[in-house]
Write a structure and sequence with these properties.
The protein contains 5 helices and 17 strands. A hairpin with a 2-residue loop joins strand 1 and strand 2. The chain has about 290 residues and is of the alpha+beta class. The chain is globular and about 55 Å long. It has 2 domains: about 130 residues, no CATH class; about 150 residues, Phosphoenolpyruvate Carboxykinase, domain 3 (Alpha-Beta Complex), CATH 3.90.228.20. Strands 9, 10, 11, 12, 13, 14, 15, 16 and 17 form a 9-stranded mixed sheet that branches. The protein has an 8-stranded mixed sheet with strand order 1-2-3-8-7-6-5-4, covered by helices on one side. Helix 2 packs across helix 5.
Length: about 290
Amino acid sequence: MEYQYKIAGHLCRIAFCDTADGLSLLPSFPPFANDEEGDSLFRISVDNAFRWTSIGKEVGQFDCGGNKFGVHHMENGSYQFEICDEKGRLCALLQCNPDFSDCVCALVAEHEAGKQFGLNNAVMLVYAFASAPYGTLLMHASVIRNNGTGYLFLGKSGTGKSTHTRLWLRYIPGSDLMNDDNPVVRVMNGQVYVFGSPWSGKTPCYRNVAAPVGAFVQLQQCPENTIRRENVLESFASLLPSISTMKWDERIYKMNCDTISDIIRLSPIYHLGCLPDEEAARLSFHTVTGK
């Protein structure tokens, strides 16, 4: 059985070789189901009998929301990933060709939740790297849409991104939550857009929605509320740690950096030192919207 999804304008296909109930493994994907014809960004074959016949050179650990995935690089340019959960238990094996357009995934977890975790993260990894040539970034951010424009709040886990967006929802009329952890950002025709995605961390917010970006805001917990616009170097330092990339893959990394440069040229990036209070939400709203 094969399913097709459209995420931020990219068609993605997932084929199940040995199960008739693949949809149960992708509970956050139905809003993105799509039957359009066209070339796909990638195709993943889920084959639980698949095993590596040889293993490539280990090149690093990919940090995915605090979970560490082993990464191996083969001589022909293909990649292999060992996808483990927060307890270090192996959930899936993933092998991808060099441009991530053709992949195979084996779900090796013993329980359904582990299989869901393995497949969800496999698709997220493949999407992030396959979409790099198309001005597309998978970002770690919480996104509010206000009167049709998206605002992304950036920062390390625990800095209060979700708290700040909840303050907008409470105190700023016309606001709705687009995504709370992993939105997709695209540069298209000289404009930066943000899209909802099937990945939203601990908040079940899987919305197939889009909006032009009004601003990016880097959060920092502070004893008082202050906001300022970042310069180019500060902006790059804010955006780069917020994206899913592989620094050891020169091709992907360069394309991601080029997209970040386009974003900095087209969108304002702010630094918000804040408390978790109404005043911080109103300060950021008035500054980034000019209202």
